[in-house]
Amino acid sequence: MKPDSLEMLWHSAPNQPNPSAMETHRAAFAVALARRRSRFTVAMSVVSAVLATLTVAFLRALLLASPTDRVGGWVLVILLAFPWVAFVLFVRRHLRLRDEHPDYSGSIADAIGSTMAENRFAQARLRTIALLHAASLPLLGFGVHQLWAAGKATTDEATSLAAVLAVFLVVTGGGLAYRYFALLRPRDKALEKLLASYL
Predict the structure, then answer these.
(1) pTM of the entire structure?
(2) Which range (4-18, 19-33, 134-148, 165-179) has the least confidence?
(3) How far apart are CA 129 and CA 123, in angstroms?
(4) 3-state DSSP of 50-117
(5) CB atoms within 10 A of CB 50
């Protein structure tokens, strides 16, 4: 069979998806995507409020502290700078994504393409958060050491604090890895196959 015959057969009416099924899928993708975008907006609003509160509280405490205590306090300020940078990057990328995919309800291909873009944005967010986790390790270690060196924590307290922070980072890191490799990556491949079936 000639290539043009294969192309005609592929795009023939019997081989096309059911229009009502396509409309159902399109609507489902559009609703799910709108829900994800709303959740992201709410999450970023909460994160910004928490970060602003923590930043003001730490800066106020730092300004009122003695010069000796300020050395360790700056570590906390640097740690807070990391999530602020990530927050700005996430919001900018989200706004750019909305500009690139303004109308995700026009067709099933638009809806799937927008969903794929959102899914890859979620993967990029997790990679950024994982990098922040790795970058925070030495700063957390230095902060615990400063507390011990300044006499604000005994050896046992510093050891316990370090252990709690280590467990927290391991658990959250494991959660990030699970979401990335077990959920988002497989979803991306499934969306690629689904989009190809509608083209």
Answers:
(1) 0.78
(2) 4-18
(3) 10
(4) HHHHHHHHHHHHHHHCCHHHHHHHHHHHHHHHHHHHHHHHHHHHHHHHHHHCCCCCCCHHHHHHHHHH
(5) 11
